[in-house]
Amino acid sequence: MIWNIYLNEAEIFIDYYWPFIHGKQCNADKKQEFTHVMGEVYSNLTDDKTLMLRDFHSPNLLFLENEDGFRKCAVIDFQDALFGHPLYDLVSLTNDARITIDEHQEKYLIDLYKKDFPFNNFQFDSLSFIEQYHILGVQRSIKILGIFARLAILETNQNYLVHMPRIICYIKRIMQSGSIQTLACWLNQNFKETFDV
Q1: pLDDT score recorded for residue 5
Q2: 90: pLDDT confidence band, cut at 50, 70 and 90?
Q3: Which pLDDT does position 21 carry in this prediction?
Q4: CA torsion through residues 12, 15, 16, 20, sign
């Protein structure tokens, strides 16, 4: 079920970011090609599941000054929570669309997360952790690009366009890692002006 959600979310990218950049709708053949590439990328994800909040990022995390320990961080906006990949919320935090997380901060947070991660409860290990992380990172980032483009096209809401360069930077970072080779080639061919790395 979750993989269908990922594919549906990928379609937001092709349905809205494509015309946002190219000025016209994506043709059916190109859309099918993209869906095939994304299916290939997602096939490398394990089917591990745990509770995932999906919107675990800066606007939904509140600092509570008068609390101690973990209670200092309050989480809001979790009505879309479902069972999904255990790294999804980490990706939401480290690839935040609204604040820049540089590579050093990202590595620090990943290392901190890995330190206490219960690998024996899941099908991936420390070595495949980063591949899983990158797949989810690109999935979430292309979805967000599509959502921001949709807001600009359908609602003439330009407010989120300021965040697009940050999201593109996250995608380029993942492309350079080599984890998503097929998708990286497709993005380079079809969005050269955006994703040329």
Answers
A1: 84
A2: very high
A3: 97
A4: positive
Burial of 85 (0-12, 13-18, 19+ CB in 10 A): buried
Contacts of 182 (CB under 8 A, 6+ apart): 37, 40, 41
Could you tell me if 148 and 160 are in contact, meaning their C-beta atoms sit under 8 angstroms apart? yes
Q: Which of 3, 2, 7, 13 is nearest to 149 (CA)?
A: 13
User: Residue 72's pLDDT band (boundaries 50, 70, 90)?
Assistant: confident
> Do β-strands 50-52 and 82-84 pair in parallel, antiparallel, or remain unpaired?
antiparallel
Taking the C-alpha atoms of residue 108 and residue 48, their distance in angstroms, rounded to an integer, is 24
Q: 155 is written with which tokens?
A: 């609602």
Residue-level pLDDT at 197: 63
Query: Which domains are seen in the chain, by residue range?
Result: 2-195 (3.90.1200.10)
| 0.85 exceeded by pTM | yes
Q: Which of 99, 116, 10 is nearest to 58 (CA)?
A: 99
